[in-house]
Amino acid sequence: MTPASLLLSSLLPFFMVTGSGCTNKKNFTSESDYLKWLGSEESRLGKIASVNGFTIKVKYMPPEYLAWLEMKPGAGAGAAGNPDGDPAIFLKTVERYRQSLTFLLTFEPDETKRPGRDVMLHNVSDYNDYKERFMELNFNIENSVSLHAGNAVYLPVLSSLENIYQLVPGRNMLLVFAPPSKEDAAFYSSTELDVVLEDGIFGTGIHHFVFNRNDFKFASGLHLAFTGSATEKKGVL
Length: 237
Known about the structure:
alpha+beta; Immunoglobulin-like; 5-stranded antiparallel beta sheet; 4-stranded antiparallel beta sheet; 8 helices; 12 strands; 27% helix; disordered C terminus
C-alpha cells in the first residue's frame, strides 16, 4: 500500500488539537466527541442562548474539519476528488475553506421547559404554517442572520438546513459567510466577530453570539494524525 493510499484508508483515526504556544494535546476518538468539544466552554468556539423555551447554539466550524468532511471515505464527490489521499490536496482544500467563515446554527427545545418538543412544530397550527417555517429556514435565512466584523456586515452566501424528518427535536443549519473580495480587511482581520440572529422565525428576539478570532487559532492548530497501518486504527470515523 502506498503512503498516499494509507493516508486515505486511515483518515482521521483521531483528532489532535494543539494550540499555538500550548503544550497540551487533545485526542478525540470519534467525530461526535470532537463536535462536543467544539461546542464546549473550554474551546470557546460555541455560544449558547436560552430564551422562550428554546436553546440556540452557534458553533464555529474550523476549516480543517470542513475539509475532512468533504474528503473522508464515503463522502461522495469530495472523496472522489482525492482518490489517492494526497495530503497536498487536503491542505489545498483547507486553504479554500479559510477564505470564508462557517458556523453551525442550532435550534433546540429547552429540555427544562419543552422536553422533546420538535422546534418545527412550535406555534404551528396547520401544514401551511409548517411549510412557511420550512421555507424561511431554507431560503430566507439571510433575512435573520448576519455577521458583523468591524464596521462591516455580511450576509450568508450559503446556508443549508439539515433535513432529518423529525427524528430529533432540534434543527441544524450550516451558515457560510464570505467577503466580496480577498482584500477585505474587516472580514479577515477583525478580532471581534458577532453573529447576529434576529429571530422572527421562532420569535425568540435578537441575539448576539460574539467570537474572538484569536480563539480560532487553537482549532486551526488541528491536524490529522494517522496510524502506521489500517489494522492499527482506533476510533476511525
